[in-house]
From TrEMBL:
Pfam families in alphabetical order: Sigma70_r2, Sigma70_r4_2
Protein name, entry field: RNA polymerase subunit sigma-70
InterPro entries hit by this protein: NTF2-like_dom_sf, RNA_pol_sigma-70-like, RNA_pol_sigma-70_dom, RNA_pol_sigma70_r2, RNA_pol_sigma70_r4_t2, RNA_pol_sigma_r2, RNA_pol_sigma_r3/r4-like, WH-like_DNA-bd_sf
Family assignment from sequence similarity: Belongs to the sigma-70 factor family. ECF subfamily.
Organism for this UniProt entry: Kouleothrix aurantiaca
Organism superkingdom: Bacteria
Entry keywords, A to Z: DNA-binding, Sigma factor, Transcription, Transcription regulation
Record-level GO BP terms: DNA-templated transcription initiation
Amino acid sequence: MSQSNAAPADFEALVQAIRPELHQYSARMLGSALDAEDVVQEALAKAYAALPATKVANMRGWLFRITHNKAIDFLRRASQQRLEYLDESAQLAEPDPPLEEGELVALALSAFLALPAKQRSCVILKDVMGYSLADMSEMLDATVPEIKAALHRGRARLREMGQNLPADMPAPSEEERRLIARYIDRFNARDFETVRAMLAEDVRLELFNRISLRGRAPASEYFHRYDQSRDWLLAPGTVEGRPAILVRDPQAPAAPPTYFMLVEWEGGRIAFIRDYRYTPYVMRDAAVQG
């Protein structure tokens, strides 16, 4: 795309194609497929708001840059630590080999958190996503020697680890299990009147890649749409160690789930629903059990 103000239609078309890549990148930067979708949503909202006043020479690179910065902001808020910048030291006469597919599969998302952010970013873009050094240089505003040095260090560290890192996630309480089981039971029974009664007055609803709602009345349309469809069957499970609602195809209930929902409770009422129906690519990076 030439350097010009991008049209909203062009932006929307590219977003639909690139959103899974932005999520894949963010999931490994943050160590969580769940937090990654929040970051991608924030990044795309920021990009869309900036469109009218921004001249974009490389839309894909621009979106990756914004997503990268949002991920860094998230990590800074979470850790309250300074993040390491790239440097040009430790350059190699011969490049070290990239991580192989088998090595990448064996590494949990949380393993990438052992790397400083810039090393992590370089390994993800090169070895996971297959970007060229030239593309990475533009996305990260870094020189090729800096990127090579970061790749060397990051690859060496991940190979040292060589195995999944344990995730410390507290088990859900019996009360939370009971509430989720009741929600699933009433949802599957299409008893949406009872389901709506479980909502807090100021409930938040995030139907990713579609709509955000707040309040019991606005959320009613969400349940109406589920009542009109026949392509779902809810079951309990976990995602990244958190209690989750897995959604399966009712025609193939033994098959892997197609997507999932997360529900948060306050005072026995539903305070927040996160529904990944329209972002099935999240399943690729999420640790799902159930």
